[in-house]
């Protein structure tokens, strides 16, 4: 039997055709008509006026922080339950992350702790992460930040296609960032984007991302720039994938529903909740296993799946537990630490077949005593 991956790229014939058309059009290097069209389509999907297609989601985060004027010594409130790219971008500009724990109800940033932190000191930005395909509680986060004049940047890398109160992921904050890495819902192999309603910020992002080249017939630079623009070929792939977004989201939601139906009866198993005002993409289906109730643990299940050539992974290791960020301030920390200790991500790709999903279910159930 072939290996089952956690979230492999879902590439179809139409994607190859789109890239071929871009090649035939002669636009191979960065920039071009596919980039322009992709940016417009990303803006539309996220409810924004402008999109800027970039080389990675990390590049988008870096530029978002620079555009908001962050620099050496500034403090940024940020989710601790995330991938390191979020925090790396904060450190790129010389700022300091201040970590906020998760709430158990949604696994997203704990807004009570966020409010406590905001009352305790001054911050240059707030950077919540839409974890595993579900938007953070922006109905509360937006006014909390606005009342204190703290710029809000939404890290929607994992949540393209999700909604909260009918608003799409990427529509919150002054700037939002997206990722099109190979494991995301849509992919450009690498790639990411910045979306905003500000024409000045969009222009600034494009300028910085194109080596900060001044308008002149020769190469002239008055600022430090970055090589962050997306190529025309990758944008063509992104456009094809984006047109297929709804199917991809529905496929992942079906996987999540099937896993819940098949595994929720197991002792000690709980799935990541979906907030009542949100529609998650369930980018990854995540569950926790309480070893005291289950008679087994997360790692035993993961290792057993691996022996059967099924990839699964622990939930993100919180950033406050990472050696490189061990000295950073943290509000709370116990919830995300427990999610990491007990949490498991199951294969969730939109190309996952029903038979392969059944393989995962059967393998996972077999580890629990008495099943």
Characterise the protein shown here.
The protein is an alpha/beta fold and 371 residues long. The protein has 2 domains: 13-243, Type I PLP-dependent aspartate aminotransferase-like (Major domain) (Aspartate Aminotransferase, domain 2, 3-Layer(aba) Sandwich); 246-365, Aspartate Aminotransferase, domain 1, CATH 3.90.1150. It contains 13 helices and 15 strands. The chain has helices at 13-24, 33-45, 57-67, 84-92, 111-120, 138-147, 199-209, 232-242, 245-263, 291-294, 298-307, 334-342, 354-365; strands spanning 50-54, 75-79, 96-100, 125-127, 153-155, 163-164, 167-168, 175-179, 192-196, 269-271, 278-279, 285-289, 313-314, 329-331, 343-346. It has a 4-stranded mixed β-sheet with strand order 1-9-8-5. Strand 2, helix 4 (84-92) and strand 3 (96-100) form a beta-alpha-beta unit. Helix 5 packs parallel to helix 6 and helix 9 (245-263) runs parallel beside helix 13 (354-365). It starts with 12 loop residues before the first helix and ends in a 6-residue tail after the last helix. The model has no long low-confidence stretch (mean pLDDT 97).
Please describe the structure with a list of short key phrases separated by commas or semicolons:
single chain, 371 residues, alpha/beta, Aspartate Aminotransferase, domain 2, Aspartate Aminotransferase, domain 1, 4-stranded mixed beta sheet, 4-stranded parallel beta sheet, 15 strands
């Amino acid at each position: 039997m072939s290996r089952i991956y956690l979230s492999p790229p879902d590439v179809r014939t139409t994607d190859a055709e789109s890239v071929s058309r871009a090649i035939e059009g002669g636009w191979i290097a960065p920039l071009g008509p596919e980039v322009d069209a992709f940016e417009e389509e990303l803006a539309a999907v996220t409810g924004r006026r402008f999109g800027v297609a970039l080389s990675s989601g990390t590049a988008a985060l870096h530029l978002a922080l620079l555009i908001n004027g962050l620099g050496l010594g500034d403090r940024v409130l940020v989710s601790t339950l995330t991938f390191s790219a979020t925090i790396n971008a904060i450190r790129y500009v010389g700022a300091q992350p201040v970590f906020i724990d998760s709430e158990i109800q949604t696994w997203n940033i704990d807004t009570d702790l966020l409010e406590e932190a905001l009352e305790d000191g001054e911050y240059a930005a707030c950077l919540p992460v839409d974890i595993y395909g579900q938007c953070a509680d922006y109905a509360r986060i937006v006014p909390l930040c606005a009342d204190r004049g703290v710029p809000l940047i939404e890290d929607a890398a994992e949540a393209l296609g999700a909604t909260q109160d009918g608003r799409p992921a990427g529509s919150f904050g002054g700037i939002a960032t997206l990722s099109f890495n190979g494991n995301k819902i849509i992919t450009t192999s690498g790639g990411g984007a910045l979306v905003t309603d500000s024409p000045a910020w969009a222009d600034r992002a494009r300028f910085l991302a194109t080596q900060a080249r001044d308008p002149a017939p020769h190469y002239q630079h008055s600022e430090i720039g970055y090589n962050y623009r997306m190529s025309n070929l990758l944008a063509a792939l992104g456009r094809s994938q984006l047109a297929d977004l709804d199917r991809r989201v529905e496929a992942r939601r079906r996987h999540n529903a099937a896993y819940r139906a098949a595994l929720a009866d197991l002792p000690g198993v709980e799935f990541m909740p979906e907030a009542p005002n949100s529609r998650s993409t369930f980018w990854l289906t995540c569950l926790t296993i309480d070893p005291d109730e289950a008679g087994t643990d997360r790692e035993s299940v993961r290792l057993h799946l691996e022996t059967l050539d099924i990839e699964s992974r622990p939930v993100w290791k919180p950033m406050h537990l990472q050696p490189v960020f061990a000295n950073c301030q943290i509000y709370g920390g116990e919830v995300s630490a427990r999610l990491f200790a007990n949490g498991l991500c199951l294969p969730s790709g939109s190309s996952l077949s029903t038979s392969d999903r059944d393989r995962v279910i059967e393998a996972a159930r077999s580890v629990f005593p008495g099943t």
